[in-house]
Write a structure and sequence with these properties.
The protein has 432 residues and is α+β, with helices and mostly antiparallel strands. It contains 17 helices and ten strands.
Length: 432
């Protein structure tokens, strides 16, 4: 299908079509128009666009396994037999990519490993981390404010949440600049020589394995020499039954927190700045009414959910919204669609900074897999918006890079898991 023109949504491939990457919302409405739970014959998934239906799936881990949470329509490593595939799933779990990570665990294993995070993101620790955020925000803004312009994603959107989560976890400050370069594509993550292989030469199916060596060293060091940080608490935490987790278990949790806490917030910040830069009245409204900033962050989470799709695998045959779903079905959960469900949000495509139920967005999921870093991301959004408004005025989109208002050109990450800008070029004046 040619790239351009109005798609035939019945033929659209959500996973590969560049037009859906740029603007998925018409496709979501097409799916919702069929049913809040709709079969997609081209990929074999069942798409969930309804708010209530999506929340129901998130909260029912007995019926819907998270084993394929980050995968999409991954071919099952077994032939489905019967209306309950629980035993087959468990015996083949190691065949699924990302199976080492908390995001793909189901209870009771998920319950035990999630308990290792209990008490880590406390209000006291988040308050201490917020003090670091204000200093970091100024430090990053100082790097570009004299230029009157910047590419916001690279200058601020990416490094800010990366360094925040590094500080919160307790990553040594001496390693911060290394990780900043690493996740900007200037380090070993982009080096084919760093691809891990097992003893048989097969590629490691854990895409975060390149971080293991650092976090293994951090966790091992904290067990030997405890410090006052989250890595120490993780290193010394025990399972509910009193057993000490293997270092590998803790490394998997730490690396996922590190990446997830960085990547999704980076997309949120760039989306928020794009909206601000398009609307000078909104800039002034938020400057004069700082109490509206937290709700503006919630509206951005709702309107441009950083997690574009999440997945579940039906363990048992079930019915959802009147649709019969067989065991072994891939459920495609679309938070960006649920967050624009008109049955739950009035005029859902509109930004309303005073929307009373904006915080009910499902950008951070629900149920046992709700994002543990949600409170952190909300603070990062608030601190960023407030400090940007404090120090920059007349924030606007670069027409040289993105075109005039009536013909904007933005590139979005070509991924079906994430929703976010590749780059955001802005211009501004420094406030005295």
């Amino acid at each position: 299908m040619a790239d351009g023109g109005a798609p035939d949504y019945g033929e659209v491939n959500f996973f590969t079509d560049p037009r859906v990457a740029r603007d998925p919302y018409p496709y979501y409405e097409y799916l919702r128009g069929q049913c809040p739970v709709a079969r997609v014959p081209s990929s074999g998934v069942v798409a969930v666009t309804g708010y209530d239906e999506l929340v129901a799936v998130y909260r029912d881990s007995a019926t819907f396994s998270a084993v394929n949470s980050s995968l999409g329509p991954f071919p099952l490593p077994f032939d489905v037999t019967g209306d309950d595939i629980s035993e087959q799933l468990e015996s083949h779990r190691d065949c699924f990519p990302m199976s080492e990570h908390l995001v793909s665990f189901d209870p009771p294993k998920h319950t035990a490993h999630r308990a290792l995070l209990n008490g880590l993101f406390t209000p006291k620790r988040l308050k201490e981390n917020e003090e670091f955020m204000w200093r970091l925000a100024d430090r990053l803004i100082d790097e570009f404010i004299g230029d009157g312009r910047c590419e916001f994603a690279a200058a601020y959107g990416q490094p800010f949440p990366l360094l925040v989560i590094a500080d919160l976890l307790g990553v040594p400050e001496a390693d911060h600049s290394m990780f900043r370069e690493l996740l900007a594509g200037k380090g070993p993550a982009e080096d084919p020589g760093w691809v891990e292989r097992d003893e048989h030469g097969s590629v490691n199916m854990n895409p975060l394995a390149y971080l293991d060596k650092w976090f293994t060293a951090y966790i091992t060091d904290r067990r030997a020499s405890p410090q006052h940080d989250i890595l120490t608490e993780m290193a010394t935490q025990r399972f509910p039954d009193g057993t000490l987790p293997a270092v590998t278990d803790l490394v998997r949790i730490a690396t996922f927190l590190f990446i997830a806490g960085h990547e999704t917030t980076a997309r949120l910040l760039s989306s928020a700045l794009r909206v601000l830069a398009e609307d000078r009245d909104l800039q002034e409204t938020l400057r004069r009414n700082r109490e509206l900033v937290p709700n503006f962050v919630e509206e951005m989470l709702r309107l441009e959910s950083p997690i574009k799709s999440d997945f579940r695998l039906t363990r048992v045959a079930t019915t959802l919204a009147g649709v019969d779903v067989a065991a072994g079905t891939t459920m495609m959960l679309l938070p960006g669609a649920a967050n624009r469900d008109p049955a739950h949000f009035d005029c859902p495509a509109e930004l309303r900074v005073d929307r009373p139920n904006a915080r009910q967005n499902v950008a951070f999921a629900r149920g046992v897999h709700s994002c543990p870093g949600g409170p952190l991301a909300r603070i990062e959004g608030r601190v960023t918006i407030e400090r940007i408004l404090d120090r920059l005025s007349d924030i606007r989109i670069s027409e040289t890079r993105h075109g005039p208002p009536e013909a904007r050109r933005f590139d979005y990450v070509p991924l079906y898991i994430l929703r976010g800008l590749q780059a955001l070029h802005i211009e501004f004046s420094a406030k005295p």
